[in-house]
Amino acid sequence: MNRPKNIPVDDLCQLLRLLSNNDVEKRCLRAKEIRMSQKNMHTAGPTSFAIIREEMVKS
Known about the structure:
Strand content: under 5%
Radius of gyration: 20 Å
Mean pLDDT: 85
Oligomer: single chain
Number of strands: 0
Helix content: 55-70%
Largest sheet: none
Low-confidence stretches: none
Number of helices: 3
Shape: elongated
Order of helices and strands: HHH
């Protein structure tokens, strides 16, 4: 009923089926738990850990 005009009906139906699936919800919650349990979050922005490590070795 409130479907945006730029989203085809078939795509919306597939998305709604996916969102109503409990297995997907369980996987999302599990992934959230795993992300929250990580101790080393990548907070260096676009700089990778490899580049940071190389700079530390040089200095």
